[in-house]
Amino acid sequence: MKTKNKLIKGTAFINGKEVKGRKTFDVINPATGECVIAVTDLSVKEAEKAINVANGAWSTWRSKDVLERSEILRKWYNLIVKHSTEIAEIMTMESGKPLNESKIEVEYGGSFITWFAEEAFRMYGDQIIAPNKGKQIVTMKQAVGVVAAITPWNFPLAMVTRKVAPALAAGCTVVLKPASQTPLTAIAIAHLAKEAGLPDGVFNVITSKDSKGIGELLSTNEKVRKLSFTGSTAVGKVLMANASSTVKKISLELGGNAPFLVFDDADIEAAVEGAIASKFRNSGQTCVAVNRFLVQDKIYDAFAEKITQAVSKLKIGNGLKKDVKVGPLINKEGLEKVIEHVDDAIGKGAKATTGAKSLDGLFYEPTVLIDVPLNAKIAKEETFGPVVALFRFNTEAEGINMANDTEYGLAAYFYSENIKRCWRVAELLESGMVGINEGAISTAVAPFGGIKQSGLGREGSKYGIDEYVEVKYLCFGLG
After folding, report:
1. How many whole angstroms separate alpha carbon 151 and alpha carbon 5?
2. Strand runs labelled E in 220-284
3. Which end of the chain has fewer CB atoms < 10 Å from its terminal CB, N or C?
4. pLDDT tens column, 127-153
5. pLDDT digits over 235-286, tens only?
6. Are 243 and 224 in contact (CB under 8 A)?
7. How is domain 12-254+454-475 classified at the CATH fold level?
8. 177 vs 254: CA distance, rounded Å
9. Fold classified for 258-443
10. Whole-angstrom Cα distance, residue 193 to residue 205?
């Protein structure tokens, strides 16, 4: 695929240099099936060099003045903004998401860099009152060390910056393994980080198709002090078990099964608008995308009619084309899972009011299913596609129980105009994040993360930098 985008590079980035391997793999545009570029496919042994480099760079980076680290992060952000058009184009080509969504992600991803550039100054310790006058007790926060970050394909920029930015701000060095489907954005911004003045070896990007081998390396290597992973719960459990061998600090952002409750006192028009925002971003391929729409009986039919109308108007196609709202699925496996879930639901009694069919390539029509039974696969498994599945409930208690009937607890949403109900439901939903009359909840200033089998730790907000530091306690004897 020919392009004039100079930020598209097919090499890994280690110690501030482009690194070629003996093998390569193709990065495919899911909208067209074309190869964007062949990328270096590092072996585990080759990737291990990046850990050694990061470990060697750590002492110098952590000893720099916090002002200098913060200024480098700000320069990095400014360069990303300067090249926002090229970066957005890269994201759309490698992930398939509509170009407008990619542009929004550049802004969103960049916000983590500016946020943590400031948080670097707020790694406050404490003075603790000692039990007797003969001692003084204080605490300080220090960088944990070499950080391994493993990121998914669905947000090629934001998933990187919300791990890398706090790590760098805290004084850590980073080895990043981006998803093999979408490594190009990570490579591009790593080059921009070097241009911003980030010292060689502080931020390294390893590219490889050997996800299992690289994952094992990063989760077991004793020089890696912290592992941050975003991806499936199944893989997260393996990495967590591996990390226990060296007792690493770990944070995991895993799978979800987000409920979206619409109560009978909701503003239906607003609920439909929020439903579209929370469901169809990146064609439903986001960890906080709604998987189950739980609608109270009294307004079920009205909501089903209105959301069917809204979904049927969504334009599907190549994300580089104007006005496209829904792009392709990332790969054949993703498409097959959507088909399986829809066919299973219909086979068990659900009805499609729009969509429910695949198109050429990796495209699937935006779909609405009504009267979905609770024994359908889509009720328990994350679909990761452009499908609205509607379930009925009667009472508030029943709706809450249905929402919580899952092993996951990442995000949840609900709509109600009753302030008392809003407080009740928000407290009772078993989820790390709750959108109340709001379908778009992600922001750098708020803690992102889940409970139950949706993960450990938080990203973003004032809590995000704590994932990359250790608290040291100092006791001064005054006698």
Report:
1. 23
2. 224-230, 249-253, 258-262
3. C
4. 999 998 899 999 999 999 999 999 999
5. 999 999 999 999 999 999 999 999 999 999 999 999 999 999 999 999 999 9
6. no
7. Aldehyde Dehydrogenase; Chain A, domain 1 (3.40.605)
8. 16
9. Aldehyde Dehydrogenase; Chain A, domain 2 (3.40.309)
10. 12
